[in-house]
Design a protein that fits this description.
heterodimer, A: about 110 residues, mainly beta, 6-stranded mixed β-sheet, 4-stranded antiparallel β-sheet, about 55% strand, B: about 110 residues, 7-stranded mixed β-sheet, globular
Chain lengths: ~110, ~110
């Protein structure tokens, strides 16, 4: 069985500060990992993905994530956040049949001025 | 391209009423999915369709039915709505195995 745990339900941070959103996973099959962002009252938008290759992946809006197989983690980072980054972020795990994803519970990032 | 579209955007039902949520994608994807989103629980898969003509249960299928009408369209039906089905419903589509999913804007459903 697959599972995803996002370790923080809410992360408050000041504008221009760095941020890390933590994600751990459990899987017995090949691992494909995703981070999605959801702005208020909108659908989910893909930030970045890890399918294979380099363990450091870069996404849109200056975000990056590092796949760590030994720690079973896929943490999302940004060196300097903006007010516009305020949103809910979801880590998701794939690798089973037909592209099904298992989502974490979500982390609400709030950027304060 | 419109991507993934969903109708309606909002709906209020009384307990026991039925309704169908519509979803369509124009990206020629094989697979389509229905999720529900509840606070603090992430997205949970209700049903999915790996390809036209096939559907399978996900994590929380009770109280729902689906139809893959053709490659573009995948509908979700609530036969007898219950307050526990108050949620935001998302449709998504993807290409085969391990590719990212593309999401619609969601339907906010309230059952009173």
């Amino acid at each position: 069985a697959q599972s995803v745990t996002q370790l923080d339900s809410q992360v408050p941070v000041f504008e221009e500060a760095p941020v890390e959103l933590r994600c751990n996973y459990s899987s017995s099959v090949s691992v494909y990992l995703f981070w999605y962002v959801q702005y208020p009252n909108q659908g989910l938008q893909l930030l970045l993905k890890y399918l294979s290759g380099s363990t450091l992946v870069k996404g849109i809006n200056g975000f990056e994530a590092e796949f760590n197989k030994s720690q079973t983690s896929f943490h999302l980072r940004k060196p300097s956040v903006h007010i516009s980054d305020t949103a809910e972020y979801f880590c998701a795990l794939g690798g089973t049949s037909y592209g099904k994803l298992t989502f974490g519970q979500g982390t609400i990032l709030t950027v304060h001025p | 391209n419109a991507g993934v579209t969903q109708t309606p955007k909002f709906q209020v039902l009384k307990t026991g009423q039925s309704m169908t949520l519509q979803c369509a994608q124009d990206m020629n994807h094989n697979s389509m999915y229905w999720y529900r989103q509840d606070p603090g629980m992430g997205l949970r898969l209700i049903y999915y369709s790996a390809s036209e003509g096939t559907t399978d249960k996900g994590e929380v299928p009770n109280g729902y039915n689906v139809s893959r009408l053709n490659k573009r369209e995948f509908s979700l039906r609530l036969e007898s709505a219950a307050p526990s089905q108050t949620s935001v419903y998302f449709c998504a589509s993807s290409e085969w195995e391990a590719y990212e999913q593309y999401f619609g804007p969601g339907t906010r459903l309230t059952v009173t």
